[in-house]
Predict the 3D structure of the following.
Amino acid sequence: MTDSIGLTPYLLIGALLFVCGAVCMATKRNAIGILMGVELVLNGATVNFVAFAHYNPAFEIEGQIFALFVIVLAAAEAAVALAIVLNFYNNHTTVDVDTAEELKG
Amino acid sequence: MDFLYPLAFWLFAALIAVSAIAMVVTQNIVRAATWLLFTLAGVAGIFFLLGADFVGATQLLVYVGGTLVLVVFGVMLTAQGPFINLKIGAGEWAIAAAVGLGFFSVLAYVLVGFEPKVPANVAVRQAPHKAEQPLAVGAAAGSLPLADNPETRSYHSLASAAVLGEALLGFEKTAPDSPVTGVRDIVTVGPGGTSSQVKIVKERTKMAYLLPFEIVSLHLLVVLIGAAYLARSKRRRGATS
Amino acid sequence: MPEFLQSNPGYLFVVATFLPLASFLLVLLSFGMWCVFRPYRDTEYGAVLYHLFGGDAPGRTPAYFAVVAIFLAFLCSIVGFGLYTAGFYHVEKKEKEVKDIRASLARPENADKKKELEEQEKKAEESLAEVKTAWENAWTAHFDWIRIYAPGQNDPDRGTVLQLGFRIDNLNALMFVMVTLIATLIHVFSMGYMADELAPTYADHQVHTEDGHLHRRGRFGRFFLYLSLFCFSMLNLILTDNLFQIFISWELVGICSYLLIGFYYERQSASNAANKAFIVNRVGDAGFIVGLIIIWTFVGSFNFEDIFRQVRWPSRTAEGELRSGAKLVRATAEGAPTADGKQTLVADPDGDQVILYPSDLVHTKAGAAPKPGTRIEAAASPKPDEHGSMPYWVLVVAGLGVFLGCVGKSAQFPLQVWLPDAMEGPTPVSALIHAATMVAAGVYLVARVFPLFTPEVLIIIAYVGAITLFIGASIAVVMTDIKKVLAYSTVSQLGYMMLALGVGGWTAGPFHLLTHAFFKALLFLGSGSVIYGCHHEQDMTKMGGLWRKMPITAFTMLAGILAIAGVPTFSGWYSKDAILAEAIGFAGVHHEHMLLFLLPLVTAGITTFYMFRMWFMTFTGEPRDLHVYDHAHESPWTMTLPLMALALMAWLFALGWYPWDASASWLEHEIEHAQPIAVSANFDLEHKFAVSYHEVTGLIVLVLVSLGFTFAVLLYYWRTLSAAETKEQFGRLHTFLSNKWYFDELYSAVVVRPALVVAHWCKNVDLYAIDGVLHAVAYATKWVSWLEGRFDNGVVDGLINLLGNVTFRTGVRLRGLQTGYLRSYVLFLVLALIGIVVALSYVVMATAAP
């Protein structure tokens, strides 16, 4: 029954999530917003992994293992990123990333 | 009942799509967090549809219940008045939209018509024919356990939680033909659909993921300490940034 | 040393030559030392040395050196001359002995004494040969100085040699005595005459500077320095036996003449005169060099003996002896020259070639001059025992070239213009150089190289001499400057000498040279005394009646004038008579050249006239300028003593016995001993004619002399005829003569002006063309460098700058990418990602396609 959908739609979902996450990263001025974009990207990748795990028998275990790891690492990364954002907020009293332009050439 | 699965899929897909796009579009950070929640839920549903129960559960537990909560906490700590709505200009929207659409179209172009490459001794699970019925749960085919029974196997993927757990613990069982030994049979059903044309191909799988598991746990420890250090309370600087 | 001199007495003359050189070098060295010590004259030892070598005022020491040197040279010359004559007569005696024995052998009555006579003859011949070789070796010597070979050759027989050497014969010895004696007397005279130059400052009234007259240091010593150098040069000239050394001395005397004429060089006239003298001489020297070149090329040697031996064939004497250098043999070529350069020549009096006699007289098999029609073989580059040949016209040109040098040096027509201007020098200079010695060098050289001259050249010499003597005399008639009169008189007398040589009177020419030296030196020194006594007044129109104030001068000068006029028993009479005799001899044989006799004849009268005119104007009558007359005084003894000595010489020098016999002069006989064979071999007939008409000619000359004397007396002593009226009557002629026949103007227009035009043209070429080219090149270079600068600035720098600018601007623009915004970085990430995906997908699809 799962086979009635096929692999491609799942991949498309993963692609959509990825693109949305990338665009979200590119457009959000709020630092947390960027973080959310990162979450979306990671989710997109995870969907991809799991889809392939399902549809490629040789990849069954590995895909899911990967997905698990991704989730864990996403959590870790979110924690650190949030710490950074909080620091940023403490230093600049703002979470607007447009104010962080010291790297401007 | 064949329509249930595609329906579920399309529902979840729609949820994900709407939520993701809404999350991108909204300017309000709190609303973005909410949409993220829905997106993550939808993704969990996709996982369940793909038979990755454990991953889906983990997604809900860790991602939604952990990461998202963390993000919400962050939002809560920082979203003071003026920072809730940070707008960007129309030009940027245009660029973002263009880039996004472009990116998606490229990916879609690549992905549509994609045939995954499978090794010669491994068959791809094809879309089942109508004639093919799920094999009855039960033991008419013999005394094979469920997992090994070709008739009963199609619903169950090898990656059950137990197997995943063992893999993470680093078990690599080598005894053949054991259902829990990580040897699995690939079942190919011929066009006739009779069990006499079922091919059983045995394949070993490697399941030694102990090292990555340990690394990740160490990583988590480091992250824990690091985040705790980074986010320690410091004297707040002045208003000037 | 005495033994050396005894066996080589010729070296006495060499010593005599080098004594003035030693004096010159010594004085020069002392001048050098003076210059060296002059900056230190304030220090103790420096002052001593400075004053030792002269000090602030010139000292007399250089004069003493010079006088002593030249006097010693005179002594050497006298001794040498004595030895030479003694030796000569000794040889003559031996020859006479041999002759007598041969004569007695020939006589039939001595047939029985034949054997002993023959023995005697042999012994006499041997002793004669011995004496003769000894005598010949005693009076000549030479050494090779520079050998010149063609590149790559080292064969002593083939190269040419520049030699230095000397050869004494009668003419030389006499010239030595004359030169050294006159030089000594003039040195003594100059010590008195140049006393003005002893002052520390000398005021030259003829040179005007911004603040009055020029004041300079006296130049007493320098005068004697130059005199010494001149004496050395002149003595070297008459000592030598080759043309190369003569040329060296030629130029040296030219230089000394230049230095001495331009002694008062701050005077424009003096420096111009010095230049003129040297340049005109140089014109002559150009011809001289041409002659030298020709002789070198065709004859291969500069030695007189060698040249004459080759150019003229020998002739046999009565005793059968070959005397070389006698006859010129012309020939025509017959047939073509053979492969090894031999050419057959046929003796032919009108041929266009001259057969050269082999240079090795000893080893050759050739004989005396061949008769016409004889065949002789000549080689192109002959060995010492082979005949050679040269084109006749080349020999003529050589003779003309050498003669041209003499024309310049002896102030003959057309190069006589420098001699009168040379009177700018001090009077002793005029006396020594331009009367007695240097100008005589030309005549001496003509006499020396006489065998080189072909009959055509000799005719030209004669005519040149004739023209010169006439021109000189005619101009002297109208001159008012006492020295100018004497200068033109010198020109005229030199013409006489040349004329004599041209007509074959080889003895008469040098004879007149010797006598003329004495009386002309006397006349010049006398005029110097007059000038000195009248405080440097030279214009005769301001003099008059000076015999009362300076009697010695007056009467010694009278002696000179009598000599030049040709009054019997005076030396000039003998020589002038000889010349005229030779002239009539020649004219008598060649009637078409009668002019060569008439001109000197008439000029003798003119000479007498202008000489007495000079004497009368200066010394007799009433003084024309009282100022001059009042201050006139007799000169000191240093000046009058030489005058008296010279007067004596002028009278008695050429005396012979009987006093009334014009051909009895001992001097003439001496000179005759030195006469080359070429003269007697070719002018035999003329000589005979001359001898037979000698007395008649003498009488005719005396008539003319008396005529001249009469006119002079009438015009200037008794003043019966008015000189001023005569001048007016012959106004045009007088102007013509006063302007020296317009020679200077002619030369100025024909030679000087074109030369100046060419010089200006050259200057303009240099200034505009050459400098123009240079400037153009400079501008071009500047322009090119400007271009290059533009290129460098614009293109090269521009490129570099462009590179830098582009890089900078690119950097600036690229810097824009660093927005600092996180979001844009993410966007770039995404874009890059898209790119990677696209690329990968292409790769994947390309490999997955089949």
